[in-house]
Amino acid sequence: MENSEFERITVIMMRGYGERMRSYAEVAELFNEEFPNRNNPITRFTVARIVQRFNDTHSVKDRPKRGRAPVIDEEKSLDVMQSFVEDPHISTRRAALEHDISQSSVRKILKCNKFKPFKVKLVQELSEDDYDRRVEFCDIMMGKLDAEPELLNRILFSDEATFMTNGAVNRHNCRYWADNNPHWYVEAHTQRPSKVNVWAGIVDHRLVGPFIIDGNLNSVKYLDMLGNQIVPA
């Protein structure tokens, strides 16, 4: 009969310590006198087992039940790795189901092969002309900075973010398993109908804003915000 946690605590307390430590037989006798109505009196062997467990684990709680250690052979590991090579977006849960092994075993196989989960990065959607314009702008700015090194400190860099009610990408559930960072990104459409727009800027290492915009940002709202919020800030 397995002893309860309360009974184990009682045994340890009755055992004592130092010069006042009782023998296993004395503890068993004292315990049975204290609980005479217990169906099965404990023996000194039971006391010894409880004390030994407490000395080993520093606890009177049940030992955690251990399942059979998973055996993953080389062929199974290769099959799992092939799944992630063919589909880097596959989840560890799905791979575990497909190969009939535990999810922890899948993670262990990936770790042994130095595969890591990389999150998707959201970037702004660009048209074909945008790339050439950005390169041209960089060339112009490089020339201006050569002539005026402090120019960037006087430029207000700003952007607005649209918080949509739907259609947003949940990056938490987006993973790309690989041994090297694939720099995976998803182009995110901007300026769609939204619940709220937020504008913020940085100038000379100082944050300006953020300012909440009622509705979409247009020229009238931007001029009003520029004169009444941005400049005073």
UniProtKB/TrEMBL annotation:
One of its GO terms (molecular function) is nucleic acid binding. It comes from the Eukaryota. It holds the Pfam family DUF4817. InterPro entries: DUF4817, Homeodomain-like_sf, RNaseH_sf. GO terms for cellular component: nucleus. Residues 13-57 form the DUF4817 domain. It is found in: Nucleus. This is DUF4817 domain-containing protein. The lineage of its organism: Eukaryota, Metazoa, Ecdysozoa, Arthropoda, Hexapoda.
